[in-house]
Design brief:
333 residues, 50% helix, eight-stranded mixed β-sheet, N-(1-d-carboxylethyl)-l-norvaline Dehydrogenase, domain 2
Length: 333
């Protein structure tokens, strides 16, 4: 099949590495900590992020990014979104000039308001035919355990998306193709913020009515932002939109929902972060999504409220009041 480099040895990078290896590819994963890479290479298990999950023999891990990237036809980028620029500046020069890059990241860069595909294009000079994104209801632990899952691979070049689809189609993982990179990225980024809001509601002790209301209105916010940036509205009704949103907001495996629950229970952002090993991307992205929406004149009240909570200017209880006390209006406008 293909030689593939997965840059990032966290839970999602490892889980997608399992998918690629199960599909028959040679997968080399890079991690910043040599001791973790050594453990993965020798025990075929990621003890820090996916303990107890056996990894395929054709998936190995390396601490040298140049070695991991050497000869890679496909490069999967699985680092935290706000660290992408620094990582590409460090080892991006080792990415082959014809390699296709696949972003697993769901975020908008702070300060620049760039989507991850735009950061990749800026730092590597790659055209849209070499940049793809993967997004969908993809909880890492379930995928690593080979539980059934589906996702979307989006690239402006449909033939490239189809090639990546073939490389990612394993017995338990079904990828679909799309050419709407903008929609897939915005849906994935916004759902993290909405997941935080749902977690806050759960932490406050609210039930399914509250969760369903936040999920549904959150989807409307994401679709409004997508429309303003030229995305296909249908993307938000599919796996990258509604599918990912439901999984993130419904599952205790979701980092963003779990983080939101801790905030709803009264912990500060720092206290919640101290209890979690991995990054909840929505905590960083809420500010950049809010600013991106304001730049394009898009109303996103849930995102605004989550950002205010993360910044410490309102309490979880005030978040709920802020949303319910808004002026009543038509559902569709």
């Amino acid at each position: 099949m293909a030689r593939i480099a997965v840059m990032g040895a966290g839970s999602w990078g490892t889980a997608y590495g399992v998918v690629l290896a199960d599909a028959g590819n040679e997968v080399r994963m890079w991690g910043r900590r040599a001791e973790l890479c050594e453990a993965i290479a020798t025990t075929h298990e990621n003890p820090d992020y996916l303990p107890g999950v056996p990894l395929p023999e054709n998936l190995t891990a390396l601490a040298d990014p140049a070695e991991a990237l050497d000869g890679a036809e496909v490069v999967v980028l699985a680092v935290p979104s706000q660290q992408l620029r620094a990582n590409l500046a460090d080892w991006g020069a080792h990415i082959g000039s014809e390699a296709v890059m696949v972003s697993l990241m769901k975020g908008v860069e702070l300060g620049t308001h760039l989507r991850m595909s735009e950061v990749i294009a800026e730092l590597t000079g790659a055209g849209p035919e070499r940049i793809a994104v993967l997004s969908g209801p993809n909880l890492a632990k379930e995928i690593a355990r080979r539980e059934p899952a589906a996702s979307v691979i989006a690239c402006a070049d449909e033939a490239v998306a189809e090639r990546l689809q073939a490389l990612s189609h394993s017995p338990s993982f079904r990828p679909y193709t799309n050419t709407d990179v903008v929609g897939c990225e915005l849906a994935g980024t916004t759902k993290n913020v909405i997941g935080l809001a749902v977690g806050v509601a759960v932490g406050l002790g609210f039930g399914d009515n509250a969760k369903a209301a936040i999920i549904t209105r959150g989807l409307a916010e994401a679709a409004r932002l997508g429309g303003a940036l030229g995305a296909d509205p249908m993307t938000f009704a599919g796996l990258a939109g509604m599918g990912d949103l439901v999984a993130t907001c419904s599952s205790p495996l979701s980092r963003n929902r779990t983080f939101g629950e801790k905030l709803g229970q009264g912990l500060s952002v720092d206290e919640a972060a101290a209890q979690m090993r991995q990054v909840a991307e929505g905590v960083k992205s809420c500010t950049s999504v809010k600013e991106l929406a304001a730049k394009h004149g898009v109303e996103m009240p849930i995102v605004d409220a989550v950002d205010a909570l993360v910044q410490g200017s309102i309490t979880p209880q005030e978040l709920v009041v802020a949303l319910l006390s808004r002026q009543a209006q038509p559902e569709v406008r």
